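> example.struct
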């Protein structure tokens, strides 16, 4: 289901632009400046409302995270959810942003923060297919894809984020022994993904057709989508693939 367009979405995300990256090349050229440290980088493709990256970044704070989302209104919610979780404030009654000290910044302005307040996640709006090629080799410790569009029509195979050409790109971006993590409720997409991994530079390290009843669930960060579909009786599939280079 397509999300209803958010009122003032671009202005809302501008308020929290300190958490945004406008140019993917900044990651390659100024990563230590962006995050304030040189911790290993992890990438989530299609972060949705931010449930996964918010939970993962808090639980495994020894990494930096780049969360990419194609749809601006969805990314707006993800950035706002992360900012709230970080204690950076909340939406003001007038639609602006209210910091925890009570200061209110109206729509159209940029809310200032100290770099150390921002934590270990930065967000970017854009299509991963267009953005990721600009990143350097071996720049990421892990890549996560959760509940992406299954593109079920045969003619749309190449759009699937587990298509062989995407997997080759992930392998280039991953460090030696880096991992690719994939979750989906769509069994057809999962079966396709298993076959693609077998023909890719990655090695299948683990997979399950029922994540929530597996040994991996204890470490699993459940997204809103995941919780909803699991409640409806859908099994969640998961795979982990290791980079061979």
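> example.seq
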């Amino acid at each position: 289901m397509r999300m209803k367009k958010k009122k003032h979405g671009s202005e809302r995300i501008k308020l929290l632009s300190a958490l945004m990256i406008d140019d993917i090349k900044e990651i390659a050229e100024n990563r230590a400046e962006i995050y304030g440290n040189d911790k290993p980088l992890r990438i989530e493709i299609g972060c949705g409302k931010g449930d996964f990256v918010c939970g993962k970044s808090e639980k495994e704070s020894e990494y930096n995270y780049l969360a990419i989302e194609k749809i601006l209104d969805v990314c707006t919610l993800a950035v706002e959810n992360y900012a709230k979780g970080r204690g950076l404030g909340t939406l003001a009654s007038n639609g602006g942003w209210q910091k925890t000290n009570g200061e209110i910044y109206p729509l159209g302005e940029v809310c200032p923060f100290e770099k150390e307040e921002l934590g270990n996640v930065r967000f970017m709006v854009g299509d991963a297919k267009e953005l990721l090629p600009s990143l350097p080799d071996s720049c990421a410790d892990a890549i996560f894809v959760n509940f992406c569009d299954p593109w079920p029509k045969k003619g749309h195979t190449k759009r699937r984020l587990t298509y062989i050409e995407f997997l080759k790109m992930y392998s280039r971006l991953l460090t030696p022994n880096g991992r690719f993590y994939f979750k989906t409720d769509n069994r057809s997409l999962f079966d396709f993904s298993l076959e693609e991994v077998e023909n890719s530079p990655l090695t299948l390290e683990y997979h399950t057709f029922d994540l929530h009843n597996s040994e991996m669930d204890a470490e699993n960060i459940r997204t809103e989508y995941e919780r909803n579909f699991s409640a409806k009786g859908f099994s969640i599939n998961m795979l982990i693939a290791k980079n061979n280079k």
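> remarks
The first helix runs from residue 9 to 15.
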